[in-house]
Predict the 3D structure of the following.
Amino acid sequence: MQGSRAAQFDLYKLYAKAMYNVALRILNYEEEAEDVLQESFLDAFTRIVDFRQETTFGLWLKQIVINKSINYLRKRKMEFVSTDEVSEVPDEVSFDDYDTRLQAEEVRKAITELPDGYRVVLSLYLLEGYDHEEISHILKISENTSRTQYMRAKKKLKSILDLKGMRDE
Amino acid sequence: MNNRLETFVKENRRSFDIMEPSPALWAKIEQKLDQKKEKKPIKLYLWMSVAAAIIVVFGLGWLYAGKMQSGEIEIADVNAVYAKKEVQFAGLIIEKRDSLAIFAAANPELYKKFTADLKKLDEEYERLKNELPTSPNQTFVVKAMVKNREIQLQLLKQQLLIINQVDDYKKVNQI
């Protein structure tokens, strides 16, 4: 089934930007994110017969984008589980201090500075709205690892923001 | 426990999706979509060719199997050298049998005995010939067939020799 070109363009206009940001947050490279976006839309358009109305087209497309992005990242040999894993779980991090000066753009930039494993887990949980169970399926890691990685990612994010705050003052 | 970050992100979710893909990307996707459309008929054509090839192969295989089952296989199909020998022997055998038949009238008892022996060998030969198409070791069967012919020939030679001597003896006695 081919669907009309105009309808395809409508879908593209509606989802391209959001999906591009999803891919970019995982990959951190604009070129790769664009490749993923292109492949995902082509996949979605050619496999549209497989799409069932159980979810929205957007969620279905997002799954394709995330899976492709993770595959790209794996090609770069990213390890989701760090070697010193399992043992301690860091304390919950407080962002109280940043109540007033926390700026979205600052946080967004700080996220790009996180190591691959942290960035992916944090993005999927915080921004794409997946829970740890879903993340464990997507990344093929344990739920506990996902939790630990998220805690560490948050801690790391705070320290990056701390440094920036110091620089700004 | 504090979830300020989570709350903050939730409240400012839109501010995180600010990057834009390059405007040329749709054109690329469109181009790829066009390529895929063109590919389809070629693919169908390819599948049809594959299907046709499979039918031809099966057809040939069926014909060949049919030929095998009808027992049309000859010694020459297995080994050309043995086939040549077999033809040579068969020719000589017919020749000797004809010679033997000349003495038949004079020595009917002896001739009967001789032909009984030959008949046994002939039956054995037919059995081997029937076995040949289905045998896992055809060269072996062909060898046995040629050997059979050779034995027939030698037997005939001896029979001729004996019958000649008997004939001579009778003639001498008559005189």
